[in-house]
Amino acid sequence: METIAIIGGGAAGLAAAVAAARAVREEGDGRRTEVVVFEADERVGRSILATGNGRCNFSNAQVDAGMYRNAEFVGKVLEALAADSAREAADVGEDGFAAALGCAADPVHAFFADLGLVWREEGEGRLYPLANKASSVLDVLRAALAREGVRVECEHRATRIDAPERAGDRWHVRFADGAIAHARAVIVTTGGRTARDLVPGALPFEAQRPVLGPLRTDTDLVKPLNNIRVRCTAALADPDGAPRAAEAGEVLFRDYGVSGIAVFNLSRFARPGDALLLDLLPQFDARACEQNLRNRRARLGAPTGEGLLVGMFVSQVARAVLKQAGLRPDAPFADGDAPALARTLKGFALAVRGVGDARQCQVTRGGFAVAAFDARTLEARELPGLFAAGEALDVDAPCGGYNLHWAWASGIVAGRAAAAALAKRKEKGTGRA
Fold first, then answer.
1. Global pTM?
2. What is the DSSP string of 204-248?
């Protein structure tokens, strides 16, 4: 019995397992090849249950490779998946409801429709399971594992993967308890430093850091704003003032800094020392903002600074803005105060100190360098038989279902390719014990 070993039972690992097992079955090799998932935790899919606040934004209706880090590589992987998925897309198209969802146009959506998942689309193309529970996504994956005969070994923490001495020989997966598993193909789907530690020095590895999370900023201004939300445009600028990135959306103030989807997306580019600039009135340009303040002053009868902002912002935000503008909240607002207040409203500045809370970050940037892998198969170029998917590779994207889409897509590609490589070696008769 030959083995395809999958290290990690998260999103990419489970997709790889289902795809590999299906490919093995379709090759008629199910009695000679098994697919095994090794998971360090006590159960698979725990990370899936935590996504989307427990609802699991599992994909997006419009996936664009350009949104990803290492976009060219991601584009080639998605193209490879599409080219290899014509048969499965046709099978899903036979289901009227699945066809109505348009899932046949995207191989990942077709994959899940074929597993029985039903979903709905929310704002910005975000796809959520119809049951509104992340558990329904995990349920269809676990059911597929059972149908396809995948063996799941939980509480098996892999610590090292040793390459075979000769090409085509078995890989050796070593575990924390001293056990060793032998496999003809290995797919690494673990994120974080775990992936690097499994094959130390064997593959180029990009430094990692948590992203898609809150940012820690200077706290004098934000502490009084804790749990207040504002709709704005947020922009990052480096210490020299050069723009890095911008996002429109909701920002949530916390006592340590800022959170919210717009901030999560900017965290992919933020560095300590950057300035986070909040445009609190994005509907006005700078000149119109200044004139609007003068008009309000005239209309409201020369109020105080805080009185001028009543009806525009809650009092805590108004006081913070006035403080940064160098204006007293209780002092009469003069016509000459409009330029300073307008500048602050158009660029309420917070100094970025780093990640606010790494535990809240949704993904880890970094991983195996994509140049070391064939985009068509996700097999390591210099280590035949070793594949990688998901967060093990240096790929990430903004919020909106894109990171999970990458996990599923890369897992399917790696799973199918591992099964195909095993079948090819058997056909050539080069497999050796």
1. 0.90
2. -EEEEEEESS-EEE-STTTGGGTT-EEEEEEEEE-TTS-EEEEEE
